[in-house]
Amino acid sequence: MEPIVFAMPGNEAMADGICRARGWERGAWESRRFPDGESYVRYDTTIAQRDIAIVCTLSDPDPKAIALYLAACVARELGARRIGLVIPYLAYMRQDASFQAGEGVTCRHFARLLSGVCDWLVTVDPHLHRVHRLGDVYHIATTVVAAAPDLAHWIAARVARPLLVGPDEESEQWVAQVAATVGCPHIVLQKIRSGDREVSVSVPGVDGWLDHTPVLVDDIASTARTMIAAVGRLREAGMRAPWCVAVHPIFAAQAYEDLIAAGVAGVASTNTVLHPSNSIDIAAAIGSAMAAHCMGSVA
Ligand code: R5P
């Protein structure tokens, strides 16, 4: 059954892109906040016995997550047949271990919250490091859309003689895949993070790559300290100004401006999070993954 697609505030462009790619209907609703900050939702489109999908990226997640949770609960109360959540950027995946005494594995708690209110979930490259499969924490049908083909397409079209650079060992999984599709070399740096904004990286020998253009590829740019540190070390090693490509452009506070000031050739990102650097459209890939759930071909 074709889903009716609802967009949480700020997700209209992505929902429109998905509906355009698939020929699906956008649902009408009122989704807003009361003056005291609580969330309000009222479905105008009739959803009883229908499949629905709610699109809500979870950058700055805490205020959005409760609104999303309630929208899914209300859809169930109104008799929706199957409820899918489309969360292009899935927050709370990085606290995937208890790193210090007194902490918890919050990615599991967040996953339990969302798993309890929907039938399926589609996201784009969640931060899977110590948790290897989304299904290990989300107890519903899930599909991970890989941004790699769209990143590779963009890099191949825009950057001459690229050398893909992963800023840390965690990034190797994306970088190797993208480099293989572009048909270019890649290297991986070593990163040590000692605080939210304290990051240092070391660069292996790059003398053989000085005639290439480095392209830093990472899943998330949050404080951008990882990319800024990598840009600095690559420039010190004599490389050209790097391009920075992020799947999820979170760019907290002044992060984007700081990255530009670090001396990059440019910044590109997918539209999982709305940002001026968005130049890689991933809506069609998300729509295909949703279609598989709606046709019942994902268990
Ligand atoms: C690391 O675990 C991730 O892959 C990214 O490298 C990290 O989230 C980037 O964060 P920031 O932009 O705050 O350095």
In short:
Helix content is 30%, strand content 26%. The site of ribose-5-phosphate (R5P) has 15 residues, from strand 13 and helix 6.
Detailed description of the structure:
This protein is of the alpha/beta class and 299 residues long. The protein folds into 2 domains: 4-146 and 282-294, Rossmann fold (3-Layer(aba) Sandwich), CATH 3.40.50; 148-280, Rossmann fold, CATH 3.40.50. The chain has 8 helices and 16 strands. Strands 2-1-5-6-7-8 form a 6-stranded parallel beta sheet, sandwiched between helices. The protein has a 6-stranded parallel beta sheet with strand order 10-9-13-14-15-16, with helices on both faces. Strand 13 (213-221), helix 6 (225-236) and strand 14 (243-249) form a beta-alpha-beta unit. Helix 1 crosses helix 8 (283-294) and helix 4 crosses helix 5. It is globular, with a radius of gyration of 20 Å. The protein starts with a strand and ends in a 5-residue tail after the last helix. The mean pLDDT is 96. The site of ribose-5-phosphate has 15 residues, from strand 13 and helix 6.
